[in-house]
Protein: Type I restriction-modification system specificity subunit
Organism: Microscilla marina ATCC 23134
Amino acid sequence: MLSELDAGIASLKKAETQLKTYRQAVLKKAFEGELTKGWRAQQSDLPTAEALLEQIKEERAQHHAQQLADWAQAVKAWEAKGKEGKKPAKPKKPKEVAPLSEEELKQLPNLPEGWGWMKMGNLVKKIQIGPFGSQLHKHDYVEQGIPIINPKHIKDGYIFPSECITKAKVDSLPQYILNMNDIILGRRGEMGRAALISSKENGWFCGTGSLYIRFTNFFEAKLYALILGERRVIHYLEKKGSGTTMTNLNLGILNNLPIQVIPLPEQHQIVQEIESRLSVCDQVEASIQTGLAKAEALRQSILKKAFEGRLLSDAELATCKNEKDWAPASTLLAQIEAEKAEAEAKAPKKTPKRTKKKKSVK
């Protein structure tokens, strides 16, 4: 009975592994333009990667101008209050990262016409590393407060919070507050733990072991959260990550990460193509997990009945008693005791070692 159950569990686990392989294959095709090949052939007005990059530059410049305007207002308010507290910090101009070299481009997969490889530092509004550990203290953690997201809370593209900090602490460190459509990424240990910040997580706090990326409006955050968790990116981050005992990311590594630049309408189409395929995967995977849980419950039930002597029916038990080698438990125990006594009698007796008495020195 248990052997049949084990065979069924093995089949479910094999199917689970095959699903993971299929999921990775779907994402790889999506990120290389294969899923939208037919859709793309029907389009006539998609922008080129070069044109898109110019639009991104313009948006980044406008974003910085707005930051400067907001900063000027904050400085006026600070001066009006008698310059109480620290003066608001002036926003830094977006840093331009050197483009990918010909040698670097040769090492990357080929992309469809209209797509391009760019370094991530030139495509984002902001990359923010989580706070220093010294900025958070034991008394800042509370049972009811603002959830804080560290790498251990990110799994399979979803966020599972388990820790909170006070609102006062969050308000004192506004640069680490997460906004909707940010992408949070674990920056320590296992690479590839990425998740999209939805309306549910809006206002939550980026933990010490995490960082977040805020793309410009020309990027579908749902798609790029998946891209930042793909194997190519994981391998790149593991290779470039600093640290002897665990991988640790810094701004330099992330700014230089090669990322696909895709026309926004095609980004939306890619998301639809992925979801239509992976939604079926999710349903099958849920069925597999249910099957594995039921199998484990059945195993425990079988073992419990076996140990309580209730596994066999009366007819099966009667058949067993008719076998030549059948004996009740009391007889088996008596045989065991007899064999044990016989073995002990045959075993050579150990003579205790004599300990020499130490002579006292007079």
Remarks:
- The longest strand covers residues 124-129.
